[in-house]
Write a structure and sequence with these properties.
Length: 414
């Protein structure tokens, strides 16, 4: 994984140009848990007046031993309290290392970033209770000299919300449009959508997880290759395979897909046990390896498109779908999704939406969630609520994040 240079400034209001910009650093470990996506940005203003400029994006894979150890924590595995603590600290040190490396690319020393925000690996997510997240924030604050904010989902969950999705607040800031319907579609481990119908007000925003994006595809590829491959690079396997339509229709009967928003999902529904069942059933049907990957890819595309058909298009046209997340690099998935969205739109008498990427709007495709986390945490530090009860089901707005303070002077890093 490599770092990439700055994009052009992106509008989110006018901001206060008289104030110096704040340096924010966001880091996101997505549900695929293959590594960290990090972003360094400058920001002025708050809320609808916020203005950002992306300075640098970096992706860094987990060391193989750390990634394997994390996957041994996911259900249905069992582990000791000591093992949980060890990995909580190890993830924190790794995140601190990623942050320092990103700062160094911009010539920034310890203490020269105003805020670091991160989401570590989500070990377990219960929509009715909360999430268990790994990564010790005090170690990140020690490494960077920055106020460090984590566990952004907890305040929303405490207010009765599902703690997710939180990105719609930032989606609205960056992508709202007075006359054009837009949908911001994330293709991470789990797929989620923020529909922004034309002229929508902030308190009218809805969003939800549609189901799997890369999670099932990655799991199937890993199983078929005994872990030698962890994803379908550029969708090559899926492109060579054949989708089993009968099997796909059975997979699309999963009850989550018909459940009405607000809703969220994760590994509990679509993790490795689900991928194992998919592979076993596919092999019983005589499917080859590439056919299995193609069918898993079609599951992602069709479940997203059907979610638009059930919950998005009936409320109004969507002229533009803006893709972000690692799935944008899977050209087969993007092609399947584009075709499926066009078909669903036609069934509602609407034109096919234009399918674009975040990069078409001046933002990095893979850094979307890292940028989001930095902005959400910055809002919270400045006393502003940034959850949307219309999205999460919370009883009220909430300031997001729990804070670890940096030491007054740099210490000797381990």
């Amino acid at each position: 994984m490599t770092s990439r240079g700055a994009s052009r400034p992106e509008r989110a209001g006018h901001g206060d140009r008289a104030q110096p910009p704040r340096r924010l650093l966001g880091m996101m470990v997505g549900t695929s848990c293959d590594g960290v996506s990090a972003c360094l940005l400058e920001s002025r203003g708050l809320g609808l007046e916020r203005q950002i400029r992306v300075l640098q994006v970096k992706e860094k894979a987990f060391p193989p031993d750390l990634r394997a150890a994390l996957f041994r924590l996911y259900p249905p595995h069992r582990f000791s309290a000591r093992r949980l603590l060890t990995l909580h600290l190890e993830v924190g040190r790794f995140l601190g290392e990623v942050a320092r490396e990103l700062m160094a690319t911009q010539g920034l020393a310890w203490g020269q970033v105003d805020l670091v925000a991160f989401q570590g690996p989500i070990l377990y997510h219960d929509p009715k209770a909360g999430q268990l997240e790994l990564g010790e924030p005090a170690l990140v604050a020690e490494a960077t000299g920055a106020v460090t904010v984590c566990r952004l989902r907890a305040a929303d969950a405490a207010a009765g919300g599902q703690g997710a999705p939180l990105s719609p607040y930032v989606d609205y800031l960056l992508f709202r449009h007075p006359t054009e319907g837009r949908a911001v579609q994330n293709l991470g481990g789990i797929a989620n959508v923020t529909p922004l119908w034309a002229g929508l007000s902030q308190d009218q925003v809805t969003a939800f997880d549609t189901g799997p994006a890369n999670m099932v595809i990655d799991g199937v590829v890993s199983l078929l290759t005994d872990g030698r491959e962890t994803f379908d690079r550029d969708g090559r396997r899926a492109a060579q395979g054949r989708v089993d339509q009968a099997f796909l229709e059975e997979l699309l009967e999963h009850p989550y897909f018909r459940q009405a928003p607000p809703k969220t999902t994760g590994r509990e529904d679509f993790g490795m046990p689900y991928a194992q069942r998919l592979v076993a059933e596919g092999r019983a049907r005589g499917l080859g390896d590439d056919d299995l990957v193609a069918t898993a890819t079609a599951l992602t595309a069709e479940s997203i498109a059907q979610a638009y058909g059930r919950f998005v298009f009936p409320r109004g046209p969507i002229h533009r779908v803006i893709l972000g997340g690692g799935g944008v690099r899977n050209s087969t998935l993007v092609a399947m999704l584009t075709a499926a969205l066009a078909r669903e739109a036609a069934q509602h008498g609407q034109p096919a939406p234009v399918v674009e990427r975040h990069a078409d709007h001046g933002l990095p495709d893979e850094g979307r969630e890292a940028i989001t986390w930095a902005i959400l945490a910055d809002e919270g530090i400045h006393g502003r609520p940034a959850n949307l009860p219309s999205v999460t089901g919370a009883r009220h707005r909430a300031r997001l994040g729990q804070v670890a303070w940096p030491p007054p002077t740099p210490g000797k890093l381990a």
